[in-house]
Amino acid sequence: MGTTDDATDWQRHANRRLATAREFVAETETDALAAGLVGVLGLLGGFVGFLVTSQYTSVAVAAFLAAVGYGWVRHRELTARAVTLAMTVSTSLILVLILAFIVLEALPALRYESGELLGVSVPGLRMFTGTDWNPATNPKRFSMLPMIHGTVLVTIVATLVAGPLGVAAALFLSEIAPPRVREFVKPGVEILAGIPSIVYGFLGFAILGPWVSDQFDLVGQGTYLFVGIVVGLMALPTVVSVAEDAIDSVPESMKSGSLAMGTTDWQTMTAITIPAAFSGVSAAVLLGVGRAIGETMAATVMLRNEPTIAEPLYNVFYGFETLTSVIANKYGSATGLQESALFVAGIVLFVSVLALSIGSQLIEAHMHRKLGGSE
Amino acid sequence: MTGATETGVVRGRASTAKTVAAAAVGLSALLFALALAAGFELLSLTGRLAGVPTIPLLGGLLVTLGAAVIAFGAGSRLELVETDPSRSAGLVAGTLFTGIWFVVTGLVASQTLGLGTVGWLAAASLGGAAAFAVTALPREDVGSTVPAGALAGSVGLVMLTGGIGPDWSWSPAGFSDAQSVTVFPRVVIPIAVAFCALVVGWAAAKAYGGFGARGRHLGAYLLIYLNAGSIIAVLFVLVAFVFAKGIDPVMAGVTVGLGVGPTTTLAVDLVIPFADVRLFGLSYDVVWPVSWPFVMNGASILNDVNGVWPAIVGTIWLVVGAVALAVPLGVGSAIFLTEYAERGRFTQVVEVATNALWSTPSIVFGLFGAAFLLPRFTPTPKKSLLAGMITLGFMLLPLVLITAREAMLSVPDEYRDASAALGVSKWQTVRSVVLPAAMPGVVTGVILGVGRIAGETAPLILTMGGGTFVTVDQAASVVDSFQLTLSPPFVTNPELTQATTALPYQLYQLILANVGQSSGIENMDTFRWGTALVLLVVVLSFYAIGIATRQYFRRKLDYE
Amino acid sequence: MSNARHDAATDGSTDTGTATDTGTDVDTGTDADDDTDGHTATGRQHGTTTTGETDERIRAEWTDYEFAGDVALSVEDLDVYYGDEQALRGVSLDVPAESVTALIGPSGCGKSTFLRCLNRMNDRISSARVEGSVELDGEEIYQDAADLVALRKRVGMVFQSPNPFPKSIRDNVSYGPRKHGDVDTGLLSRLLGRDDEETEAELVERCLRNAALWDEVNDRLDDNALGLSGGQQQRLCIARCLAVDPDVILMDEPASALDPIATAKIEDLIEDLAEEYTVVVVTHNMQQAARISDQTAVFLTGGRLVEYDDTDKIFENPESQRVEDYVTGKFG
Questions:
Q1: What whole-number distance in Å separates Cα of residue C172 and Cα of residue C158?
Q2: pLDDT digits over B31-52, tens only?
Q3: CA-wise closest residue to B133 among B118, B150, B120
Q4: A10 inside 8 A of chain B by CB
Q5: What is the DSSP letter of A250?
Q6: Interface pTM (ipTM) of the complex?
Q7: Do B9 and C70 touch (CB under 8 A)?
Q8: Chains in contact with C, counting 3 or more C-beta pairs less than 8 Å apart as contact
Q9: In chain C, what residues touch B136 (CB-CB under 8 Å)?
């Protein structure tokens, strides 16, 4: 029953769409339709031409521009709508293109590193079961595990730094700081985000690294612990600004209601504000984690750049390689399978950060629904 | 009538006990500062302070401090001091102290006493459980002072009795030789003292507030203020440090005066394309009144002072290209999403996609640029300025879209309705009502976004490339290089499809390069610091302008 | 000095007859209001402002209100500024204990501002500046050593629109006592078996009964309070306020967001509350003020208290022409 209902539903939906489309065609003047058609074809042609590196790409683009120009003069309303729609679609398309292209480039390495699981050949499996990164001598091995281990350690340290400090700073900014102090601290936090990552990396490389090696009597330079701290500092502003937004969105009436009962500010924060903003604050921390995972330059410059797993596993005083640093380091010199393996690292990064981003957005949406219901 | 004998709304006057608690907070602050000084090696741990060897002195202070808070807690428990404690210090404090004491007893048992895994686990669990019992079971005044005071006291005793002297060291067992770690007093003492000072300072602040709701409030505020203060301090130190290190190389050889600077030729050439007929030409030489070698020179063995001019030019072109791509696309999409599209599945998907794009790591953008763009501009894949521009444009795009959308959403619907009620068409409304009202937000967002991409390095490694030491005539000259051709694609610009450098990329290359004598750079280190300073100044000025713009518009809106 | 209370005292009336007024009469108010506060008493100078409000000088004796019994709150020379704007000008009045005092006036007259001064909720607004004196049972609440927590425990507040916490009904009621350490039902004490679950249950039932809500919610105390209707939410906020056992309850247009039936319930409730509590209620609804209050203070434009007297007197035979115009609906 249900399926047939769904089917008819779907058909009705499609029919309605078709009807609106027909109506649109009937109502719109012929020259506008023609211009629209030329525009769409030009845009598609331009895109395809670009992909196949045709020298006629510019012709297609010119056709598109001409169509837009014509439409702009004759049918401004319709053209504005169509052009902005095209812009929106192409913006969203970038995400798809990113995934498509890095997967495409990663395929050779994935195929090469196929492994058997329950009798089925799974592409890339060996990259996650072995621990060897050996691009030079046969048999070549491209394990992701050393880099994943490094990324996990750095991210844990960074989260321990950015999470609590960031949430505390967000509370300070939105609830505690007098206006004058806030006017000083808030841009300060933003500027902290503005310092280029390579500058952080340079400070870490030139000052922190040698100092740490000396203090802890290490062999060589590069520790996950201090990379994590620096990356945490860089992720801090993300956590602060998102968490501050979440805390700000708790209605003032709720806070006043609590204060009017004779509670202290701190009690109001812990009992009312933070629970109400909890999902927003956790979304902020998730985003911070995403930033820490994706941070490249500080790790590249401060680490040792040899894909190895630290011993024992929790030895954060020795830092070797992360998913990001291996790409930045090896991309120029790598060829063939190794280059392809770097794209696999890119996929792991992209997918994990994408999951974090979507997860935090779902959590935030949940919070707005909840608070929205209370107003 | 509720009698006036009930608890009044006026707090009691400062008592001696409160003074003691305040003094304990002050002493914690002093110890924290001393620990910082020792950490930054401003204070020698092997030397003496006020005539007393440093380590025992710090230990003694810690013991005093610990004893003071425990005494305060006991006094409050025995009702000698007027306080208002809760029934228990609470689960949060209990858990934290359990954790701290678990680690402390665990380390002592495994490393000092040399117990095996079972042994130290048992000892650590015992220590943690004891800390929990002392924290959570008794009244708050005891529960929050005794574990804190005991921690400071025992750490202090170890330092006072020479358990950790200047020659102490410790290497955790079980670490291989190639990855060994040794902890020395110069590390462990500042960290331990600072940590104990924080814990005891918190307890003392609670005591000062008389425990209870007010005490917790003060304790928490102490930590939160400290946190905000240290974030600002770190920022200040970072920026100041780069300035101090970089200012000398950057300012080397700066002269001001008529005719000292380089010459710029302003020229206008009007040429009929494809016919090689020159209609008229005009050229005029301008000599700059300032000579600033670090900013105006390239790197060359012939220069007195080497500079980063090509990198500056590269960064400027990158920003221009990225803005030209991202701003129209981003603002256009924002217009469609806010003004034309109905809220539904489509807008949701686009929103999720933009936010995901915003958090995508920059190195992934680099990989994408390398795979998608590099093979398309030249017959063989080659890193190029154009690829760098487009990649950074893609990175800027989500930020522009998000801020533009936010700015447009905050334009009240009344404006749109008022305009529509006058019979103005949708696009006209957007152009003359929505866009002007949203402009401040968009501009601020774009400036801050530009600050972000101007400092971006990772994508450039993969897409734009360029040398380490770049001479001044290798600076990109995009404007002069446009060429028209008769066959498609009609317009070419070899300069755009060539690798070039930019400030952040150059700094990365300089870090990788060990020696620069061949390019005339004597001291790599100062050259790096100089480059870092120029980069920092460029990026931070974008931020400063962005923040100032926002402040300006906000103030203007407030007064309207 | 020109303010009403001092004049009353020199008249030898029984005003402020309690011992509370001795000692710390901190007069932080400036004398700046001397020229504005109508001690010149030149009688009615009629004229009409653009809003249709009669122009007249305020006479000091209009705000003299003599009553027998205790004074709960005593306000003297209260000036409030928001930035450069003055929201209240030299307001002085005494609130009798265990009665309902209504504050009425057109919007923007400062009556809500005045209310928020009584438990210092105006401190939340950073641009607000308060000058003058407010005494609660003879203790000055505007002094540096004042303990806002203790003050707000004794002076509860119910807001214009219901603002329950996003917690269960039970937790909403027991929120205050829990935060003040009077009731302990935390995880830790439950683990240790020393929680006050019974005390809490009694407290919740008593407060909900007093707020006339018990019969409607007793079977769903663990439901989220945000699921209640507007009227129920407002009564829950009153119950929440009662749970702290305040002396004074401030209500800022508590029924303005509610339908007539819910409003009637709140009004009945306010009258009942006055047997035990001192209630100060702001309303823009004159019928409501007439129905529920024992005495009424009329604020008019410019943040001035114009007349303060028995409710019957205000509505039947006011001294001021402007008040008469206002209560008969000529402007407002």
A1: 13
A2: 999 988 888 878 887 777 778 8
A3: B150
A4: no
A5: S
A6: 0.89
A7: no
A8: A, B
A9: 188
Which of B238, B372, B540 is facing A97, going by the closest CB pair? B372
**What dotted CATH number matches C4-164+228-327?**
3.40.50.300
Distance CA B297, CA A187 (A): 33
Buried b (16+ CB within 10 A) or exposed e, B211-226: bbbbbbbbbbbbebeb
Measured in residues, chain B has a length of 560
Pairing of strands C155-158, C248-252: parallel
Q: Do A259 and C152 touch (CB under 8 A)?
A: yes
Asked if C304 and C90 touch (Cβ cutoff 8 Å), the reply is yes
Q: Which of C151, C176, C226 sits opposite A374 (nearest CB)?
A: C226
What is the sign, positive or negative, of the torsion defined by CA atoms of C174, C177, C178, C182? negative
In a domain, A316, yes or no: yes
- Give A263-293 as a DSSP string: --HHHHIIIIIHHHTHHHHHHHHHHHHHHHH
Reported as a single tens digit per residue, the pLDDT across B310-342 is: 888 888 889 999 999 999 999 999 999 988 888
Please report, for chain C, the start and end positions of each structural domain, with discontinuous segments joined by +. Answer: 4-164+228-327, 165-227
Q: Indicate the number of domains in chain A.
A: 2
Q: Where are the alpha helices (DSSP H) in B422-476?
A: 426-429, 435-454, 458-463
Q: Which residue of A has its CA nearest to C245?
A: A261
Cis (ω within 30 of 0) for the bond into A146? no
Q: What is chain A's mean pLDDT, rounded?
A: 86
**Which residues of chain B, if any, have pLDDT below 50?**
1-6, 560
Q: Which helix (H) or strand (E) holds A133?
A: strand A133-134
Distance of alpha carbon B69 from alpha carbon B27, whole angstroms: 11
The low-confidence residues of chain A, meaning pLDDT below 50, are 1-2, 373-375
Q: Which of B490, B489, B491, B536 is nearest to B244 (CA)?
A: B536
In a domain, A273, yes or no: yes
Identity of the residue numbered B423: G
Same domain for A91 and A39:
yes
For residue C57, count CB atoms less than 10 angstroms from its CB and return exposed for 0-12, middle for 13-18, buried for 19 or more: middle
Q: Which positions 123-182 of A are in contact with C (Cβ < 8 Å)? A: 178-179
Q: Which residues contact A342 (CB under 8 A, 6 or more apart)?
A: A326, A327, A330, A331, A334, B367
Query: CA C126 to CA C107: how far, in whole Å?
Result: 22
What tens digit of pLDDT does each residue of C22-50 get?
333 333 333 333 333 333 333 444 445 55
DSSP for residue A213: H
Q: Does a structural domain hold residue A8?
A: yes
**Burial (0-12, 13-18, 19+ Cβ within 10 Å), B382:** middle
Task: Count helices and strands (H / E) in chain A.
Answer: 16, 4
Contacts of C150 in chain B (CB under 8 A): 7-9, 11
Query: Do A217 and B349 make contact, defined as CB atoms within 8 angstroms?
Result: no
Structure tokens at B14: 């400062």
Query: Is residue A170 in a domain?
Result: yes
Domain extent, residue A368, equals 144-374
In order of A89, A92, B88, B217, C239, the CA distances from C153 in angstroms are 57, 54, 22, 17, 14
Q: Do A9 and A86 belong together in one domain? A: yes
